[in-house]
C-alpha cells in the first residue's frame, strides 16, 4: 500500500512556504522544506511554524544539491517558492536576482529531466510566478494570455522562469505549471515589505513605541489577497489532470493609501496622516501603477475562490503585530489564527 505523498518546498521559511507546508501537512503529506544555507535568523523565525516538516539547507543555485534531495526523498510534488522576493531591492542586486529567480529554475527543470531519465518518472513541478510580470499592462484585468511588460529586475527574471516552465512542459512533456499570484499578505509577511512596514508601524505607534513612519509612493494599486487562500490554490494546481498556468487573484484593486488607512484604523489610531512622512528616496526607479487579476480559469477548472476580504487581511496583520509588540515574542504558531474569525 502506498504511503503518504511527499512534497518538496523550496523556500519553506518564507510566508508562502510556511502556509503551504502547514496546508500540505494537514492533508496528510510528508513535507520536506529547504532554507538558504547559513540563514540562522530565518531558521529561528520559521521553525515555530514548521512542526512536522523536515527542514534541509539548499542554495537554489546548487543544482547538485537539488538533485541529491530528489534522490533522497523522491518527492511526488515540488513547489518552487524560494526566490529573491523584494521588487525594490532587486535594482541593487540585479545579477543575483537573475541567478536565483531565473537560471536556478532552468537548472531545476533540467534536473527533473535527468531524474526522469534515471527513474522513468519525476515529480510534478510548481513554479511561483507573479503579477509583476505584467508590469505596465494595457489590459485590465489581466488573464493568463496577457503579454508581459516587466518593470524591475525581479519581474524580468520571474518572466524568464515562467516561460521556461511553459517550454519544458510543451517540449519535454513534464508536468510543470505556474501560479501567477497577485499580491497576498499575512502576519508572516517579511518586514522588508511595505505592507508589513505599515502594519508594524501602526502597531508600534498604537503601543507608544514610535511616533511616525516614512513611506514612499502610496498611489500604487494592487490586487491583494490572503496567503492562506493562495497556497490552497497552489496545491490544487498540482492535483489537476493537466498541467497549466493559472492567475490567482481576488479581482479587486486597492491602493497602498487604502491599506494604510485600514491598518491605522485597525490599530485604533484613526487618521494616519498625522503619523506619516513621505520620503522621495523610497520611490522605486520605475513602478507599476495598478494590476488586477482575472482568476476565472482557476474558478472554472480548479474550483478555487478567494475567501478572505482585503480588510480582514490587513486587520489580522495589525492585530498580530500589536501582540508581538506587547509580548516581545516575534514568532509563534499562535499567530496563525483563522482570518475569518476576526
Could you characterize the architecture of this molecule?
There is one protein chain. The chain is of the alpha/beta class and 342 residues long. It has 2 domains: 202 residues, NAD(P)-binding Rossmann-like Domain (Rossmann fold); 101 residues, UDP-galactose 4-epimerase, domain 1. Helices cover 40% and strands 15% of the residues. The longest helix has 26 residues.
Draw up the topology in text.
Layout: E1 6-10, H1 15-26, E2 30-35, H2 40-46, E3 53-57, H3 63-73, E4 77-80, H4 94-119, E5 124-130, H5 153-172, E6 176-181, E7 184-185, H6 194-206, E8 213-215, E9 221-222, E10 225-226, H7 227-237, E11 245-248, E12 254-255, H8 256-266, E13 276-278, H9 296-302, H10 310-327
Parallel strand pairs: 1-2, 1-4, 2-3, 4-5, 5-6, 6-11, 7-10, 8-13
Antiparallel strand pairs: 9-12
Helix pairs in contact: 1-7, 3-4, 4-5, 6-8, 6-10, 8-10
Amino acid at each position: 500500500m502506498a504511503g503518504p505523498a511527499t512534497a518538496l518546498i523550496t523556500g519553506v521559511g518564507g510566508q508562502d512556504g510556511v502556509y503551504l507546508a502547514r496546508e500540505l501537512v494537514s492533508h496528510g503529506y510528508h513535507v520536506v522544506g529547504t532554507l538558504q544555507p547559513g540563514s540562522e535568523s530565518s531558521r529561528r523565525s520559521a521553525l515555530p511554524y514548521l512542526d512536522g516538516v523536515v527542514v534541509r539547507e539548499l542554495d537554489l543555485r546548487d543544482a547538485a544539491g537539488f538533485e541529491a534531495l530528489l534522490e533522497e526523498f523522491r518527492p511526488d510534488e515540488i513547489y518552487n517558492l524560494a526566490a529573491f522576493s523584494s521588487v525594490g531591492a532587486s535594482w541593487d542586486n540585479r545579477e543575483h536576482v537573475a541567478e536565483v529567480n531565473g537560471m536556478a529554475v532552468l537548472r531545476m527543470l533540467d534536473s527533473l529531466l535527468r531524474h526522469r531519465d534515471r527513474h522513468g518518472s519525476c515529480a510534478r513541478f510548481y513554479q511561483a510566478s507573479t503579477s509583476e510580470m505584467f508590469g505596465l499592462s494595457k489590459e485590465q484585468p489581466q488573464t493568463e494570455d496577457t503579454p508581459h511588460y516587466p518593470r524591475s529586475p525581479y519581474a524580468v527574471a520571474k518572466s524568464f522562469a515562467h516561460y521556461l516552465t511553459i517550454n519544458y512542459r510543451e517540449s519535454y512533456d513534464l508536468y510543470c505549471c505556474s501560479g501567477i499570484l497577485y499580491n497576498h499578505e499575512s502576519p508572516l509577511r517579511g518586514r522588508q515589505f511595505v505592507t508589513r512596514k505599515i502594519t508594524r508601524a501602526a502597531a508600534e505607534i498604537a503601543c507608544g513605541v514610535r511616533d511616525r513612519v516614512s513611506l514612499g509612493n502610496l498611489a500604487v494599486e494592487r490586487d491583494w489577497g490572503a496567503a492562506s487562500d493562495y497556497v490552497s490554490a497552489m496545491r490544487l494546481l498540482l492535483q489537476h489532470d493537466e498541467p497549466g498556468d493559472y492567475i490567482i487573484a481576488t479581482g479587486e484593486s486597492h491602493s497602498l493609501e487604502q491599506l494604510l488607512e485600514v491598518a491605522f484604523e485597525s490599530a485604533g489610531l484613526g487618521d494616519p496622516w498625522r503619523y506619516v512622512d513621505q520620503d522621495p528616496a523610497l520611490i522605486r526607479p520605475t513602478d507599476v501603477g495598478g494590476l488586477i487579476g482575472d482568476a476565472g480559469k482557476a474558478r472554472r477548472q480548479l474550483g478555487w475562490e478567494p475567501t478572505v476580504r482585503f480588510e480582514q487581511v490587513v486587520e489580522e496583520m495589525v492585530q498580530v503585530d500589536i501582540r508581538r509588540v506587547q509580548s516581545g515574542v516575534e514568532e509563534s504558531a499562535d499567530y496563525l489564527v483563522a482570518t475569518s474569525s476576526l
